[in-house]
Amino acid sequence: MNEQTCAACDYPLDDARILVYIGGKPVEVCCEECATKLRQAEQSAKAAQRPEVN
Asked: Rounded to an integer, what distance in angstroms lies between the CA atom of residue 51 and that of residue 33?
């Protein structure tokens, strides 16, 4: 049996899993807290990639 785990914390997923799109790809997480963490991490990564304007 292949157990699926949360993309943010590796907690085993159950029927209450949440689907979040990160970088246009679906990612499953165990709770809203983990969904928020992944969304924030994605926003931080995008902000770091933007060139500075002088």
From this structure: 30
